[in-house]
Amino acid sequence: MFQNQTFTSRYFDGVSAVPEEGTVLVHGQTIDFSSAETAHKLNVSQFAEFTLTHKGCKLVLRPDESKESPVLEIICSKSDAKQFESLWIQSKKNQSHAHAFFYSIREMNPIVLGGLSIVIVAIIGFFYFKGLELVTNLIPVSMDKSLGESVQMKMDAQFQECNTKATDRFFSEALKKIVPKGSPHQFKVSVIGSTIPNAFALSNGKIYFFSGLLNDAKSQEEVIGVLAHEVAHIEKRHHMRNLVKAGGTSLAISLVVGPGLGNMEFLETFTEIGSTILVLKFSRDFETEADVTSIEYLRNQNLSPSGLLTFFKRMQELEKESMESEDNPPDANAKDDEVVTKSLTDFLSTHPATEERMKTLASLIESGKKGTIKKVVSDKTWKDVQSVCLDFKNSDSK
């Protein structure tokens, strides 16, 4: 590799801060260092570390933290430094199979190595998060109930329900048709007096409907479609799965970044952002799964699945109206309502875009059996359902 070439070099003995100036001559795996006062014969494999420098390369004899290690600096061109590195790597590869594997990776092209690293991390990440799904199966459903009950206590203390006999009858009949047989959950629906056209579910089977959704609904099947969606969230254990994945994501990032970040605040921020993005993605996946599952529930009872699609069409119209009115300053009452709306519906940012969900639902409805439009309750009872909480809201606004 080096035929009778000598290179200017400096040797630090690990004791004195003043280096010995001299030259090196390479014979196979042996490096001969000579100076005016001393001579050292060193084997390439003896050096624990090799580093390329702007003047050539540097070889560290041993990784000893207790005292300074002897260091040999060789002044040479970049091409010669690369040859020194290849010689050093080859000597390390000959020591053991583990060294051969590790130093073969070091020899790889940085671009190829980077691409390979991304692929390996992606594969590990895929199986890691798939494993988290299996972890959820080991958690008993009783934990879902406990989790939901703790949230329900806060909800019931903060908001006033305005259920009526009509709403109790409607949702009771609807749940009998939607909930799959053998479900381990006990479902119950409560209505909250609010103009927000929305609904959400807790992991213990408690479902909350905002009266605005009932008041503005165009048909029974629209509300039934939303109810089926919320039942699907509970049956698919989305609350617990999201909790497990969120915890798993935080753990994985913490293991990669490592403890003891010190003043490296940007890494902590990166960890938080990474966790947030992934958790939001999980929520979007769950929303899509709930949409698909709700269609299955409705078709199993030969009910029309188009109600949920109708609901999203109305939501899309409301979104457009909201965007158009953003520049108009709200009055005091509207502003208060806006604050309540925001505090209760921030979680909607985790949902897929309305347009995206409508396309998915339209495709599912088109590809399967249509089902029939069935009335769960009589027109009179439905009219009572749609007028629920109106008195409550009127008195609340005075």
Automatic annotation (TrEMBL):
GO BP terms, alphabetized: proteolysis involved in protein catabolic process
Domain of life where this protein originates: Bacteria
Cofactor: Zn(2+)
One MF annotation (Gene Ontology) recorded for this entry: metalloendopeptidase activity
Keyword Protease: yes
Entry-linked Gene3D superfamilies: Metalloproteases ('zincins'), catalytic domain (3.30.2010.10)
Cofactor descriptive note: Binds 1 zinc ion per subunit.
Similarity-based family: Belongs to the peptidase M48 family.
PANTHER family assigned to the protein according to its UniProt record, in alphabetical order: METALLOENDOPEPTIDASE OMA1 (PTHR22726), METALLOENDOPEPTIDASE OMA1, MITOCHONDRIAL (PTHR22726:SF1)
Protein name: Peptidase, M48 family
Lineage of producing organism: Bacteria, Pseudomonadati, Spirochaetota, Spirochaetia, Leptospirales
